[in-house]
Amino acid sequence: MNADEWLRVFAAELHQRRVAADAARHVVAEAATHLREGGGDPWLVFGPPQAYAATIVESIGTVPGPRPGPVRLDARGITKRYGRRTVLRDAALTVRAGQIAAVVGANGCGKSTFLRICAGLVSPDAGEVTVSGRLGFCPQQGGTADFLLPDEHFVLVGAGQGVAREPARRAGRAAARQLGWDAQGDVLARHLSGGTRQKLNLTMSTLAEPDVLLLDEPYQGFDQGSYVNLWDQLIRLRDAGRAIVVVTHLLNQLDRVDVVLDLTPAHQGGHS
Amino acid sequence: MDADRRGQWLRGVLDLCVLALLRDGESYGYELAQALDVAGVGPIQGGTLYPVLLRLQRTGLVTAQWREGGSGPARKYYQLTDDGRAALHHGGTAWLAFVAPVTDIVTKGVDG
Amino acid sequence: MRRLVTVAEMTLRELARRRGVLLLLLLMPLVFWMIRRDTYVGQSIRALLLGISWAVSTAALFATSAARELEPRLRLAGYRPHHLYLGRMLGLWALGLAVSVPFFLLTVFDAANLRYAGIAVAMLCCVAVAAPFGMLIGALLPRELEGTLLLLTVVAMQMLLDPASPGARLTPFWSSREIATWAVDHTDGGYLNRGLLHATLVTVLLIVTVAGVFGVRLRRRRHLHHAPLT
User: Fold this and answer.
1) How far apart are the first and last CA of chain A?
2) ipTM of the predicted structure?
3) What fold is seen in the domain B3-111?
4) Hey, of B49, B63, B76, which one would you mutate to test binding to chain A, going by the most A CBs within 10 A of its CB?
């Protein structure tokens, strides 16, 4: 991990610990200045980013986390069968504004299906989903158009909300920057690397400013830095009052989420 | 010297050292760290120094502002406040009152 | 309107960038035409029309398959199903017209004593039918390969069937053949009228079916309820 990456991870840690955004920015900038002037390995100068973030929290405290808002997504009794195989049995999940929910479980346990049912793309055999506000969905793959430029994707998504070209392009590039991606290039989506394509995919799903954001393993092909940026972005969105559902098989993210739905058979049902 | 022990001592007195270094004018983190090193306190890592500065800032003993240095990047400069000056006086006196007998006792032990 | 036009525009942009596919698609009408050219002008023009139908419907098939995963999310982003399929169809029609122009000029310069307006109308019919036809196949068959094979079958059938046989009227591009006969062989107006009627009927029927398929696929599911934002 080089200094830039250390700083990114550190910034994300501060954010997750709910250090006020302004204060966090100052602390990170100061650490960056120090490293620039003195050189040295950030791991020796400041220690592990997680530990240093914890020390900072002790020094300056945190802002109280916003209380979870009203229910934005309520899925109940979701049952889905493919032929004789029951993939989902009576699965339920409630996510409020300002919460991140993780949907976890072994491969093939119906995580993606559950998400697509929540998005209204697949019908369940039983169960209901209630959504408040606008819905955004980021599919695992294929949500982009091979032969379009990133800008054209932004224009296409923007037009759905009646947004004009230029504002849509600007909004798209700004959202891409949040993920550490400069989307200005003239590269067709099919020539983007896997990780960058996934950023395009993600950017498209946040562009319409959804109140409920559903993400299906949104970090495929990401390097460590992009991964940190992603969580940074998700936490920003959460703090802005969005309700977020992330399908994931990486367990180390669970400490960052507010609700976990484990779809491994025999533990279905959301718990906090 | 036993680094652990030195660290423990520093924890108790680093804030006073910083306040004292700021008495004659503003400074920034890296410069403070170097000044402490040059003075012989030993290398102070950023991970130790900045939390102290932040605590001093939060309690109003120093103020800070970002400014472009004469050359080089923007830095966060710390200045002593009146409260800080008072705290330095107060804490410094107490420290001196504390180390004088400690030095006496330890000197006897070492010489003897 | 913005949504419709944007989808049409993006469809055109995507297709315009698939240069290899486009060239191969244009090659087919050209080759059809060249092979038949020496024998009989009517044959070459019919082959050309069939080639255009094939090219446009294949492009429609590709465009539809490629958008399979994209469309649901556009639906969530505020598009209605008709924006998506009509927009795409508009883009494909525009592409079809652009493809037809050089071929039309080719016939004008190459063959004398034709009803050129008839050739133009026949080409319009091909394009009108081919876009929704290719889209329908693309929507019903999940993979491009299967769709392409089906299209090939239809085109081959069209070519081999005797146009006078009753079964031929059930093939989608029969209209262009009738109109071409009127244009090349100077037959009576019945050919033109039948052709126009057939093209209109088939186009409308295909659009309605495409609308149905897209409407079902992109429908608002019954299990999903929208509550007001509180």
Assistant:
1) 33
2) 0.88
3) Arc Repressor Mutant, subunit A (1.10.10)
4) B76
